[in-house]
């Protein structure tokens, strides 16, 4: 594992076949601390709430508090829109599993297909967040052990999304259809 100029560990380990997020520890057996929440997430939640309420000055103040831990210079932000907060959320919480749920929560599409993308070809798609592919199935042990849920109530198996390419600018619609 490499080290940065200031002696800290790199947050990613790359090899020819894959890219792993090791933001909170790396062990040969991939065991590490599991963080359920952290202070940065709380700042971002508060900043987004302020921005959504139209209080962009307070949203900027919350972002400034967060960013002063990231940068050596004072990142004074006088105001921030909800979109600006969401960009910082994507940066700060990268690889921590928030992306899909943030898209679902804000009803924003997933866009992985675009010129310059680094997503692997199989995962390079653009899709409406309401597409059935993003409705999680109920775990089978839950259905088997819970007499209040029957197998007929299982969410449908997700459809395969049509991948994007430069030649085929596909978009997977909410109803399962594909458009270009």
Could you write a compact summary of the structure shown?
Helices cover 28% and strands 9% of the residues.
Any overview of this molecule?
- This protein is α+β, with helices and mostly antiparallel strands and 180 residues long.
- It has 3 domains: 1-34, no CATH class; 36-108, no CATH class; 109-180, no CATH class.
- The chain has helices spanning 39-52, 56-67, 82-92, 99-106, 140-145; strands spanning 12-15, 18-21, 110-111, 126-127, 171-172, 178-179.
- The strands form 3 sheets. It has a two-stranded antiparallel sheet with strand order 1-2. A two-stranded antiparallel ribbon has the order 3-4. The chain has a two-stranded antiparallel ribbon with strand order 5-6.
- Helix 1 (39-52) runs antiparallel to helix 2 and helix 1 (39-52) runs antiparallel to helix 3.
- It is globular.
Features:
3 domains, alpha+beta, 6 strands, two-stranded antiparallel ribbon, 9% strand
**Number of beta-strand segments:** 6
- What average pLDDT do the residues reach? 82
**H/I helix tally:** 5
Shape: globular
Alpha-beta classification: alpha+beta
Into which percentage range does the β-strand content fall?
A: 5-15%
Major sheet strand order? 1-2
Largest sheet descriptor: 2 strands, antiparallel
Uncertain spans, ≥5 residues at pLDDT below 50? 6-17
Secondary structure blueprint with pairings:
Layout (H helix, E strand, L loop, with lengths): L11 E4 L2 E4 L17 H14 L3 H12 L14 H11 L6 H8 L3 E2 L14 E2 L12 H6 L25 E2 L5 E2 L1
Antiparallel strand pairs: 1-2, 3-4, 5-6
Helix pairs in contact: 1-2, 1-3
């Amino acid at each position: 594992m490499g080290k940065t100029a200031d002696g800290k560990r790199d947050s990613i380990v790359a090899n020819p076949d894959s890219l792993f997020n090791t933001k909170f520890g790396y062990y040969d057996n991939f065991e590490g601390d599991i963080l359920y929440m952290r202070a940065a997430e709380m700042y971002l939640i508060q900043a987004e709430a302020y921005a959504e309420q139209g209080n962009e000055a307070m949203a900027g103040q919350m972002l400034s508090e967060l960013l002063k831990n990231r940068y050596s210079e004072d990142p004074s932000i006088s105001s921030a829109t909800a979109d600006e907060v969401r960009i910082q959320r994507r940066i700060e919480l990268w690889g921590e599993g928030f992306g899909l749920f943030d898209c679902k929560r804000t009803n924003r599409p997933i866009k992985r297909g675009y010129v310059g993308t680094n997503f692997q070809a199989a995962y390079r798609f653009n899709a409406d967040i309401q597409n059935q592919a993003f409705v999680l199935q109920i775990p089978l042990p839950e259905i088997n052990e819970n007499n209040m849920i029957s197998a007929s109530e299982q969410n449908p198996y997700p459809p395969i999304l049509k991948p994007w390419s430069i030649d085929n600018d596909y978009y997977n619609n909410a109803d399962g259809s594909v458009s270009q």
